[in-house]
């Protein structure tokens, strides 16, 4: 099915070194590069950058 090719599931891993991850989907056509989002890390108890982990 085309759904998995266009919008794959990606893991976002915390750069704080806590090992906390978020799981999301991304549009590969609009964002071909790796995703970097600033989200909340409950283990570090602050907002940090989360980078796409393949």
TrEMBL record:
One GO term of the biological process aspect: translation
One annotated GO molecular function: structural constituent of ribosome
InterPro entries: Ribosomal_bL33, Ribosomal_bL33_CS, Ribosomal_bL33_sf, Ribosomal_zn-bd
Name used for this protein in its record: Large ribosomal subunit protein bL33
PROSITE patterns: RIBOSOMAL_L33 (PS00582)
Phylogenetic classification of the source organism: Bacteria, Bacillati, Actinomycetota, Actinomycetes, Pseudonocardiales
GO CC terms, sorted: cytosolic large ribosomal subunit
Organism of this sequence: Kibdelosporangium aridum
Encoding gene (name): rpmG
Family (UniProt): Belongs to the bacterial ribosomal protein bL33 family.
Annotated keywords: Ribonucleoprotein, Ribosomal protein
């Amino acid at each position: 099915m085309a759904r998995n090719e266009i919008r794959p599931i990606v893991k976002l891993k915390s750069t704080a070194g806590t090992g906390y991850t978020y799981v999301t989907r991304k549009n590969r056509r609009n964002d071909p590069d790796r995703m970097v989002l600033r989200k909340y890390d409950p283990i570090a108890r602050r907002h940090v950058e989360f980078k796409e982990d393949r």
